[in-house]
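Figure 3 (text version): structure tokens given as input.
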């Protein structure tokens, strides 16, 4: 029998080798078509007496990448026809249980299955191997094994929450399930997730050896007397796993992520009952998540939209793809050094220029430090380090920029300084070379005035630290050409980051919206809300840190300069806030600039942890020192809604023109609460009418900064959403025409 997604071969020993190899796919995924084939294969194995055992492997470099989230995303929260909610849930549950029954039939078929894991195995694809009776993986540290569903708001729904704890115990399984952490084959073997590792060329041979010599067709949990390693939740000493686990979960997620809560429930409840009951428990919690807005939004933004952007969704059509072979990097400070590192890591030759040779050499040394850390962790070799460093040339000579395909400037945020290096670079580089400015605030159109070729001038805004932050914000000036945009996107793809494309504006998109979070936190403090409450509520929203802490990181003197310049630029149109005199006092009078000089809203002692500065109580009349659930919820909304209002304004003003850019950029750029899917997804989830009403209430009480824009009012009147009105593929008219 032949299958569309699998190849099969039966040898003389009765071993049936099943090779997963989906056509027109770079990786195998759990799709409806592949699972239909696997179901037919399981049936053939069960009924065919000639088959004594099965080897399941992959015909691709990776074993499998998990579920097809494109299919899953389209079904999240959906139903069909006129079915009631209960009928829709039952339909989803029955459909999902079909996959559960397939794997259960496989492991109870009476025939032994051996998984030969030749490459990366993620999510549902790893769960298939867990349903096999033997697992052997290639001894290759590049291979990752993981159940990462929690990262997109789901749980492992193919038995992962039941089989993994039964293999290694709840205490070992929970961190992998809750955090989606990956493990390498050797570690997986040590933990008991797989049975053995062998050289890649011996993988199939080892699987066949086990089938012929051992071939046990009964899973441990189906054997009489089986006990979960470490015991069930009520066994002596094991209850603390869930008590401490729940406490840590609350501390780290603040209850914002239902997936992690459901995973804990699956393991807690499921390990107290037989495997079949546990699988039914898991399925119910999985369907619950599939219908939650958090899951739908996270799947869309963190997986589907980000993948589309990574693959060039915003790249202009009709422009030839190019590869950056030689990069010129102007400025060897932390940003420039980081850009040089990720570019050299991607195989580019990098000319790293600074004002003096010592500065340029220091910039190269930054890469050396990162590589030494990678070597210490076993992620890099001395040869790899030498090869990467050989591609970075530190110098003061602008003549070395000749033949660069792309030049990126990351010098001091001063128009005159940037204009000077622009002219020096353009005197050397070719006429077709693209020039990018890594600026977070200065408008690109203005900077391009120093250029003789503004069509080749573009903004390429990185985030710090460059080696770890996944986003790059590409900014179009008024004269930026399609060729410049295309090369910028191609370059970002080369360094394996995600690009978003925005139009020129003060603060662009990410800096402008991020600034509202820290500013609102300062406003709360100036109003008399205790700084500890401001910080804790900030973290409870799902933001990575409190607004005062982030203000210190950005630098209070920088924020003060921006406020002062904005006040000058806007004149009578500037709206003063309660935070203005507080920032004036902190910066101009007290010299508290933030983390960089060891004193801001926090104190930063040479020894010990930072702490909120007690002197804040002398500057502000603290009126709110205790909270209620209602107050916490209100403050959380203030912090999140303020950012969302600004994101909507950016969309109306066409600073950002694609909902994917807005949502993905917010999460990857400044850490907007991931469970919301981004600020525009947040508005859609709340409902535009309810959002506008809430923001009008805040505006009446707190100021016009909360007042919804005309676009939001128009959408509220039509009861419309961003993802309905503005097609994510860019096929519908932009926000404002």
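Below: residues designed for each position.
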């Amino acid at each position: 029998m032949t299958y569309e997604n699998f190849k099969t071969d039966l040898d003389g020993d009765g071993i049936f080798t099943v090779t997963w190899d989906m056509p027109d796919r770079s990786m195998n995924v759990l799709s409806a078509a592949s699972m239909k084939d696997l179901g037919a294969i399981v049936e053939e194995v069960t009924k065919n007496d000639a088959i004594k055992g099965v080897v399941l492997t992959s015909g691709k470099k990776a074993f499998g990448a998990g579920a097809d989230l494109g299919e899953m995303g389209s079904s999240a929260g959906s139903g069909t026809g006129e079915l009631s909610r209960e009928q829709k849930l039952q339909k989803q549950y029955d459909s999902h249980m079909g996959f559960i029954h397939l794997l259960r039939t496989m492991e109870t078929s009476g025939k032994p299955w051996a998984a030969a894991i030749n490459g990366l195995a993620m999510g549902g694809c790893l769960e298939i191997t867990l349903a096999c009776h033997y697992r052997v993986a290639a001894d290759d540290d590049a291979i990752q094994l993981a159940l990462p569903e929690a990262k997109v708001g789901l749980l492992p729904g193919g038995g992962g929450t039941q089989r993994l704890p039964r293999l290694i115990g709840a205490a070992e399984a929970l961190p992998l399930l809750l955090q989606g952490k990956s493990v390498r084959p050797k570690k997986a073997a040590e933990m008991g997730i797989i049975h053995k590792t062998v050289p890649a060329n011996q993988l199939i041979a080892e699987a066949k050896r086990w089938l012929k010599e051992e071939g046990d067709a009964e899973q441990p949990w189906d054997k009489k007397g089986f006990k979960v390693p470490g015991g069930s939740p009520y066994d002596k000493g094991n209850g603390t796993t869930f008590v401490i686990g729940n406490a840590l979960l609350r501390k780290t997620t603040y209850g914002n992520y239902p997936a992690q809560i459901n995973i804990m429930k699956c393991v807690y409840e499921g390990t107290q009952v037989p495997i079949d009951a546990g699988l039914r428990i898991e399925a119910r919690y999985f369907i619950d998540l599939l219908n939650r807005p958090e899951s739908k939004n996270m799947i869309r933004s963190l997986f589907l939209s980000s993948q589309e952007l990574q693959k060039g969704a915003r790249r202009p059509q009709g422009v030839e793809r190019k590869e950056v072979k030689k990069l010129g990097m102007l400025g060897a400070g932390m940003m420039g050094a980081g850009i040089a590192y990720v570019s050299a890591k991607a195989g580019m030759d990098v000319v790293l220029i600074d004002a003096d040779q010592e500065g340029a050499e220091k910039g190269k040394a930054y890469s050396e430090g990162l590589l030494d850390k990678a070597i210490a962790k076993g992620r890099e070799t001395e040869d790899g380090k030498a090869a990467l460093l050989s591609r970075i040339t530190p110098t003061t000579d602008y003549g070395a920029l000749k033949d660069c395909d792309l030049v990126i400037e990351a010098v001091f945020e001063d128009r005159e300084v940037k204009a000077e290096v622009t002219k020096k670079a353009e005197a050397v580089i070719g006429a077709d070379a693209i020039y990018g400015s890594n600026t977070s605030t200065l408008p690109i159109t203005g900077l391009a005035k120093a250029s003789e070729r503004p069509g080749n001038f573009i903004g390429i805004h990185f985030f710090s630290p460059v080696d770890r932050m996944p986003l790059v914000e590409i900014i179009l000036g008024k004269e930026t050409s399609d060729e410049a945009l295309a090369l910028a996107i191609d370059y970002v793809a080369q360094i394996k980051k995600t690009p978003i494309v925005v139009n020129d504006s003060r603060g662009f998109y990410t800096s402008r919206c991020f600034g509202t979070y820290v500013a609102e936190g300062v406003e709360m403090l100036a109003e008399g809300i205790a700084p500890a409450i401001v910080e804790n509520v900030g973290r409870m929203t799902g933001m990575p840190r409190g607004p005062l802490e982030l203000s210190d990181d950005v630098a209070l003197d920088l924020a003060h300069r921006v406020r002062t310049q904005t006040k000058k630029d806007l004149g009578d149109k500037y709206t003063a806030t309660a935070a203005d005199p507080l920032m004036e006092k902190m910066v101009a009078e007290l010299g508290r600039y933030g983390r960089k000089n060891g004193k801001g809203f926090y104190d930063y002692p040479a020894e010990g942890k930072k702490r909120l500065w007690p002197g804040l109580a002398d500057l502000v009349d603290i009126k709110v020192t205790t909270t209620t659930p209602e107050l916490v919820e209100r403050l959380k909304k203030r912090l999140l809604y303020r950012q969302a209002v600004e994101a909507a304004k950016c969309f109306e003003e066409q600073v950002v023109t694609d909902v994917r850019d807005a949502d993905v950029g917010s999460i990857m750029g400044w850490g907007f609460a991931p469970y919301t899917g981004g600020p525009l997804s947040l508005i859609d989830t709340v409902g535009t009418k309810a959002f506008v009403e809430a923001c009008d209430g805040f505006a009446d009480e707190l100021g016009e900064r909360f007042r919804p824009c005309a676009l939001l009012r128009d959408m509220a009147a039509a009861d419309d959403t961003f993802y309905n009105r503005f097609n994510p593929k860019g096929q519908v008219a932009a926000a404002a025409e």
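The chain is about 50% helix and 10% strand.
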